[in-house]
Design brief:
heterodimer; A: alpha/beta; Rossmann fold; four-stranded antiparallel β-sheet; B: mainly alpha; 14 helices
Chain lengths: 301, 350
């Protein structure tokens, strides 16, 4: 699906792309466009087809059918000179230091970035002389990000960049991505972290079972699919006429979640029903709620 | 069109891996050296023992200097070690378990002996012992003539085989196995995302491996020559040319194995399937002279066969490259064929 007409400002256009593996349809006729300078997020649970789709766009694997245009034309040999990829899972060359790894990859491009600047940008100064197999998970992700930036790419692919990182390392990585965004680079990011998509992306496509089921800015998606606020409170026998109160969203872990457009009215109904409100929480909806509404599943399921 | 900068980057990275992996690096030099040392100890001295002949009975009087009790004709035999037993039963038990090749009862003539008809060593030991006992009769029917010229030691014959075997393992595992591992863990996918072409990548892998093979060869040769003084009748330059072409064909074969697949276990199996027959049929350890024709035909399919034949001809017979047209053509053709197959089949990620 495409939510808007393709314009000259689109850096990349994906048209009816499909990928089939014998009986499995991994990507099912996906179409969208990504404007220059935007950060486009592909959001979906594991197995939704995000990585397959992104690898087709990267020209790592071929599509079964469909068309991809880069700068309005089919991708040529120069495409690889202009893109940077941070793969979800990749090993690094053994027995090379961080700086040597970057220098090696920089040598593969016609117009490489300055390796020392890259080391500074990705906060790798302290480990630049360490061997690749002696660095931590967070440092490794920053090195992989630096490798993706080694050719000063116009289009940057980040495939689940913060998966497996602790919150601190994740925040550090997001800061670097923010700095790349500030340079007006176009970014395609896949993630199953709702906060990551919400913080970094201008546009989001929600993917499930190989299809894009919704697309737009985070704010627009939330406004369109999740009106009102979400109320969470412990499950209790005192709660009666739930359907009449508001929309039941989720049950589990001993909690009930409601969504309502009128908080005051809902609260007064709960008080009248003598429900214990000592553990109540009220929050604005987020992309997780959008996903839940659209698919009935949580992102990390 | 090959981009030299990209080629050099991959060449350098692969060489760094080789030189910095200290265990593998050391083993590459130590392995052939140890084998040469081992074989020089086994085959180099006068104490070589090939066949074991049990002798009985051993009387208490003989216990301290039993060797002198052997008949003169047997005492002079080479390549036979005599082992004394107290009695027949003791000797027979060893014979039945192939711990000795022949059992001989000495005392009054004619001597009695026992052997297993199913033992090839027993058969040869029998011939040696009989020949020893009938040496005077044999001398009337055949006269030994002197060989003139340099004596080629077994070690001189074996040394090229050891070097060739080392090159074979290094080329096949260093390219075939490593590239499959890179494909499995995503390193190749990472390279695919760059402008590096498959041809550039494979060429860099091949050049790097040939450089390392030649480097190892020269170091091992110099190291072994210091101790064992190998004689090269032909030209060292010709030798280098043959090793270079041989290394290229073996590395190209490695590229065929590296072309596809992500299973290290499967690749290891295929490598074993190729290296073991190649090692034995290419005459690394022993000659296959006299083997059935079909065995010799299979041997001709291996690049190692042609390389070793050419190297031995240069070292021991003083042949020049012009005399080795068949071997050089075969190696060149194999290199081209393997390279073409490897390049055509190569996949970055499957």
């Amino acid at each position: 699906m495409s939510n808007r007409a393709i314009s000259n400002e689109d850096l990349i256009q994906i048209r009816e792309v499909k990928k089939e593996y014998s009986s499995l349809v991994a990507v099912d006729g996906v179409s969208f466009s990504i404007p220059r300078g935007s950060c486009f997020g592909l959001l979906g649970p594991n197995g939704a087809g995000k990585t397959t789709l992104i690898e087709i766009i990267e020209d790592i694997i071929p599509a079964t059918s469909g068309e991809i245009l880069y700068k309005g034309r089919p991708r040529s040999a120069d495409f690889r000179e202009e893109i940077g990829i941070m793969f979800q899972q990749t090993a690094l060359l053994a027995f090379l230091s961080v700086k040597e790894t970057l220098t090696t990859f920089a040598s593969l491009y016609h117009h490489p970035a300055d390796v020392n600047q890259l080391i500074a940008q990705c906060h790798l100064e302290d480990i630049k002389d360490q061997m690749n197999d002696c660095i931590s998970g967070g440092q490794r992700q920053r090195l992989l990000l630096a490798l993706a930036l080694v050719n000063k790419p116009e289009l940057l692919f980040l495939d689940e960049p913060s998966t497996g990182l602790d919150p601190q390392a994740r925040q550090n990585l997001w800061k670097i991505v923010e700095s790349i965004k500030a340079q007006n680079k176009t970014i395609i990011l896949t993630t199953h972290y709702m906060e990551e998509a919400q913080n970094l992306c201008n546009q989001i496509a929600i993917m499930d079972q190989g299809r894009i089921i919704a697309m737009g800015s985070p704010t627009k998606l939330i406004k369109t699919f999740c009106k009102g606020v979400t109320i969470t409170l412990p499950d209790s026998e005192n709660i009666t006429n739930l359907e009449a109160l508001s929309t039941l969203v989720q049950m589990g872990n001993g909690n009930l979640e409601f969504r309502t457009n009128n908080v005051t009215e809902t609260l007064s109904k709960l008080i009248n029903a003598k429900v214990d409100l000592s553990e109540i929480s009220v929050r604005s909806p987020n992309l997780e709620d959008v996903f839940l509404t659209l698919t009935g599943k949580r992102l990390r399921d | 069109m090959i981009n030299a900068k990209r080629l050099w980057a991959i060449f350098k990275a692969r060489n760094h891996e080789f030189f910095r992996d200290r265990e593998a690096f050391g083993w590459n030099f130590l392995f052939p050296f140890l084998i040469v040392v081992g074989f020089s100890v086994i085959f180099g001295g006068d104490h070589q023992t090939e066949f074991k002949v049990g002798v009985f009975p051993l009387s208490p009087l003989q216990a301290e200097s039993y060797v002198s009790s052997l008949p003169d004709e047997l005492e002079k035999l080479r390549y036979v070690r005599f082992i004394w037993f107290d009695n027949f039963d003791q000797g027979l038990e060893r014979l039945l378990h192939h711990k000795i090749d022949l059992l001989l009862q000495i005392g009054s003539t004619p001597y009695q002996y026992w052997m297993s008809d199913s033992s090839p060593n027993g058969y040869i030991a029998e011939k040696i012992v009989i020949a020893g006992l009938t040496a005077k009769l044999a001398a009337k029917r055949a006269h030994k003539q002197q060989i003139y010229g340099r004596n080629i030691r077994y070690l001189d014959w074996l040394f090229p085989g050891i070097l060739g075997m080392n090159m074979m393992f290094s080329a096949l595992y260093g390219v075939g196995f490593v590239v499959v591992r890179y494909r499995k863990n995503g390193v190749l996918k990472r390279f695919k995302a760059t402008p590096l072409t498959a041809f550039e990548y494979l060429t860099a892998q091949m050049l790097s491996r040939i450089f390392l093979l030649m480097f190892t060869l020269v170091i091992v040769w110099i190291g072994c020559d210091l101790f064992f003084h190998f004689h090269v009748k032909g030209s060292y330059l010709d030798l280098l040319a043959v090793f270079l072409l041989g290394g290229m064909s073996l590395t190209a074969l490695g590229l065929v194995l590296a072309a596809r697949g992500t299973s290290e276990e499967f690749t290891n199996g295929v490598l074993n399937f190729i290296t073991w027959p190649m090692m034995f049929l290419s005459e690394v350890w022993f000659s296959i002279e006299g083997a059935p024709k079909w065995v010799k035909t299979i041997a001709e399919l291996f690049p190692l066969t042609h390389m070793l034949r050419a190297v031995r001809s240069i070292m021991n017979d003083g042949a020049g490259l012009m005399d080795l047209g068949i071997e050089m053509t075969a190696l060149f053709a194999m290199t081209l064929i393997f390279l073409s197959i490897g390049a055509a089949m190569f996949s970055w990620n499957k």
